Amino acid sequence: MDREIATTLGELERKLVELERALSAIGEREQAASAWEPSSAGRLVDEAVETPRGDGPAAPVVPGPATSVAPGPSAPPPSVPPPAPAAGYGGGYRAGSAIDSRREPTAAATSVPGPGARHEPAGDRAPSAAELLRFRERLERTARELTQEYDALLGRLREPAAAPSRQPAGGTISFARGAPSLDIVDVDGLRQAAARAFDSDPGGTTAYGTSIGYPRLRAWIADRHGVAPERVLVTNGSMQADAFLFEHLVHPGDDVVVERPTYDRTLLSLRERGARLSAIDLLGDGIDTEALARLLGDGRGVRPRLAHIIPNFQNPAGHTLSMAKRRELLALASQYGFLVFEDDPYVALRFSGESLPTMLSMDPERVVYASSFSKTVCPGIRVGYLVGPPDIIDAIARLATNTYISPSMVSQAIVFEFCASGAVERSIETVRSALAQRAAALAGALRREIPEAQFLTPEGGYFMWVTLPPGADVDRLQKLAADRGVSFVKGTDFMLDGGESSLRLAYAGVTPAQIEEGVARLAAAYRSL
């Protein structure tokens, strides 16, 4: 390819040499040629190339806007000596070339000579010296531009290739995603549940259904929470449940209380709806209810529509709302007239400590509850649900009808069979046991590898919140860690402000051995800051 390009560029210079000689030859008879030089009236610049009349001397064939010149030897006019051989162009035009080094804008109608072009004589008169000069300028500009581009391309080709990034053996270890590893998902149990769903209720499993969800699963959930089925709506995952609730309750300008930090998708969803967010610090035993009470009572006029709370093994912090604070929060909700949105997908995954009652069970008229089977069955099943006052559930059911007619009956029928058979309890126990080992491995590795890191070992769930000493640049740490084959989520992703020295580590999807290696890599990245 380089040789072909060099040949074409060589032809450009041959044409320029040819033009120089033609101009020199006709310069001697410029005045005599004025008698037949065409008038500029009615002509476009470089509109066409004209041929000589009668028996006059032949001029070089010059391309116009729609004409190109073939590479290769061209017969010069009889009055012009043959062109000199062209120099090689492997590195572009050099000093001494017929083309100067100034770069000018390329004319809009520039034609570039190239392989396979044909000579197309146009008109019946020889070109003037002025026309030849204009064409020479165009040809020079074109050649300069092509040569500069060619040199740039060659320069890039000759640059040493960037060194490939060094990824440690075994690939990236991810502390980023809150999902279980395949080894703790009951694939066989799900396969059997799917077969039972199609065998026991083929009509209901394959139908559209209604927006309330698969009726048998809805009844199972209601029984689980000790409420009437009319208080339950089954959705395509708990994020869909959250979105429906926010769509129904939150309007632009409404005040909403959130934890600090909190789930990043919650922040995004509420911001998109124009909510005014009040972020209240999360302590080791849950949201700071005293700070919330001060906010509500200090006369600033903050009157939340709802408070979004993740009470058990909070995402991203892993903290749990204490029993005392559950009561305090419900008392504030009653006093100031807001709903508590109890977002509780990790409740079943406690592996140490004492189980606490849901706020839904403590005040069913003041609480809307959401949960999911993504954490206890598998994420791909995409089944979540809401439990709340009947009027709110009815309104959201209408919203769901207008959104998708009905959620997936196939997924919900499989989940029902999985739950009704007791497989869900065995799955939960498997997941709990694995999570307990992984959380302990992560805590131990952090203490050993990064002893200055601060964290609270969770009693359940998927996540651990880690705070590094003030000034630690976690944004840069994330890039350095990625170079060493380990990933995590920055603390700033879960906050409206702050969190620059914090990060979230998810341990559900990694084995203890991977955790040990991953924390070692993370520590090496941290030491390189």
CATH 4th-level superfamily of the largest domain: Type I PLP-dependent aspartate aminotransferase-like (Major domain)
Largest sheet: 8 strands, mixed
Helix percentage range: 40-55%
Q: For the largest sheet, list the strands in their spatial order.
A: 2-9-8-7-6-3-4-5
N- and C-termini, Cα separation: 46 Å
Strand content: 5-15%
Overall, the morphology is elongated
Structural class call reads alpha/beta
Second rung of CATH, namely the architecture of the largest domain: 3-Layer(aba) Sandwich
Total strand count, please? 14
Q: What does this 3D model show about the protein?
A:
The protein is α/β, with parallel strands linked by helices and 529 residues long. It has 16 helices and 14 strands. The protein has helices spanning 2-27, 30-33, 129-158, 187-200, 202-206, 215-225, 238-249, 264-272, 289-297, 323-336, 359-362, 390-404, 409-420, 423-449, 474-483, 512-527, and strands spanning 173-174, 232-235, 255-260, 276-283, 286-287, 304-309, 339-343, 367-372, 384-387, 454-455, 463-467, 486-487, 489-490, 502-506. The strands form three sheets. An eight-stranded mixed sheet has the order 2-9-8-7-6-3-4-5, sandwiched between helices. It has a four-stranded antiparallel sheet with strand order 10-11-14-13, with helices on one face. It has a two-stranded parallel sheet with strand order 1-12.
